[in-house]
Amino acid sequence: MDFRLTDRQRELVELAGKLGRERFAPRAARYDAEASFPFENYADLRDSGLLALCVPEAFGGGGADYQTYCLVSAEIGRHCGATALTFNMHSCAMMWSGPLADDLQMSDEDRCGHDARRPRHFRRVVDDGAIYAQPFSEGNEAAAGKAPFGTVARKVERGWRLSGKKIFASLAGAADYYGVLCTEEIPGKPLDRRDTLYLAVKADTPGVKVVGEWDPLGMRATVSRTLLLEDVAVPDGEELMPRGLYHKAAGAWPHMFMTLAPTYMGLAEAAYDFTVAYLRGEVPGMPPVKRRMFATKQLAVAEMFLKLEQTRALFHRAISDARVDPDKRSRMRALAAQYTIMENANDLARLAIRTCGGHSMLKSLPLERIYRDSRCGALMLPWTAEICLERLGREALYEPGERDD
Ligand SMILES: Cc1cc2nc3c(=O)[nH]c(=O)nc-3n(C[C@H](O)[C@H](O)[C@H](O)COP(=O)(O)OP(=O)(O)OC[C@H]3O[C@@H](n4cnc5c(N)ncnc54)[C@H](O)[C@@H]3O)c2cc1C
């Protein structure tokens, strides 16, 4: 496949690169050390227009499609993994409500309701610079798509009452709105995945609490603490998707779960970039000692280049495949890309440290952080490395409806 960026994509990637190099990268060590949220980076994203990247143009946003989002996100990840990861949570709330929902089949009534509701979310981002988070995980099988969410919403007059607990809620305490996936509680009916709701909850609503410590190995500036929702009142109109649409989207638009991968593609690029600069004696703050003349270093960097190119090729191919109702091979390729990117990002960081040597793992240099951040990708639901393998094996060997009794 001939993968070329459009002029608009190139322009946006260059903008993300400039912000990343000049603003995010120099701040990354401090936010990592403090495990604090990079508000300054979000001010820059706001000022540059990138905060509204995935808001449709008709609502004053950047109008980015899935592929464009992935390219921009990877470029941010190259300079600050944690900023890219939280930018994913925020941007996906806009993308799922915007272009992704446009692709999905829904009744005229649902379409009409959605079109009436979603401008409020877009306006908040475009006009007020609001930040959205995506707390889905609960520490049960729900985020993996195997059980209904245990966070429940009960319909009341003029809105919902929401109760539950979300773990690893990136942007906890920093977001203006939490896009909460939950199950509609229908009296007399067991909780059902088909009744999944996606509600925006204003962060300062009574009953919303951020609790727990945050002192993890990597991705420290995501501040992914625990979110408690204690009988929270959510007004009608805060739905980010019509009732039940998330469940349909998960089947019809599977690439929606691959959007964490660009962050880690960026980290893979960063590990390689660092190694080349280090061996050339060009890392800022280091004595200009060249190590590139040793054959062992040349072989090692060649091995890294091969791995990086293989990873990037699959990334580009998979993000070009993304659409509603992709064919079986495209679905499998998305899982393969996710697995490959998440595993190779960490492997490239490992190879980078082995190749560059002892000095490269000092905390004063970015590689040590890249190594820790890159470790987190394979753990992230719903497409953890293990779940990707499990699904790939099954999809390779079974056609829909086939079973062995
Ligand atoms: C830095 C960081 C930021 C995060 N940010 C967010 C966020 O913003 N929003 C959010 O919703 N979540 C977020 N997460 C959470 C993440 O997506 C996972 O939910 C979390 O890491 C799971 O942790 P756990 O220990 O409960 O894993 P478990 O659920 O216990 O899973 C452990 C492993 O078991 C396997 N597994 C789990 N369920 C199944 C299954 N049904 N079938 C087969 N295998 C399974 C998986 O491979 C998984 O890695 C974040 C995680 C990290 C590390």
Topology, pairings included?
Elements: H1 7-34, H2 39-48, H3 66-77, H4 81-103, H5 108-128, E1 132-133, E2 152-156, E3 159-169, E4 177-184, E5 196-202, E6 208-211, E7 225-235, H6 245-252, H7 261-279, H8 295-321, H9 328-356, H10 366-374, H11 385-397
Helix pairs in contact: 1-2, 1-3, 3-4, 3-7, 4-7, 7-8, 7-9, 7-10, 8-9, 9-10, 9-11
Residues 89, 134-137, 139, 141, 143-144, 146, 168-170, 219, 222, 224, 376, 379-381, 384, 386-387, 390 line the site of flavin-adenine dinucleotide.
Strand content: 5-15%
The biggest beta sheet is recorded as:
7 strands, mixed
| Low-confidence segments | none
Kindly state the mean pLDDT as a whole number?
96
What sequence of helices (H) and strands (E) makes up the elements?
A: HHHHHEEEEEEEHHHHHH
End-to-end C-alpha gap: 40 Å
Helix content: 40-55%
Mass-distribution shape: globular
Q: Supply the number of helical segments.
A: 11
Radius of gyration: 21 Å
Given helix and strand content, the structural type is: alpha/beta
Give the distinct bound molecules.
Answer: flavin-adenine dinucleotide
Tell me how many strands there are.
7
Overview of the structural elements:
The protein is of the alpha/beta class and 405 residues long. The chain has 11 helices and 7 strands. Strands 1, 2, 3, 4, 5, 6 and 7 form a 7-stranded mixed beta sheet that branches. A hairpin with a 2-residue loop joins strand 2 (152-156) and strand 3 (159-169). Helix 3 runs parallel beside helix 7 (261-279). It is globular. The two termini are 40 Å apart. The site of flavin-adenine dinucleotide has 24 residues, from strand 3 and helix 11.
